[in-house]
Amino acid sequence: MSEFVVIGNEISIASIRSFLFAKKIDNGDSLVLNPMDYENITEEIKNSEEPIDIPLNVLGVRIIKDTSGEVPNGKVQIVEDDKM
Question: What superkingdom heads the lineage (predicted)?
Answer without folding.
Answer: Bacteria
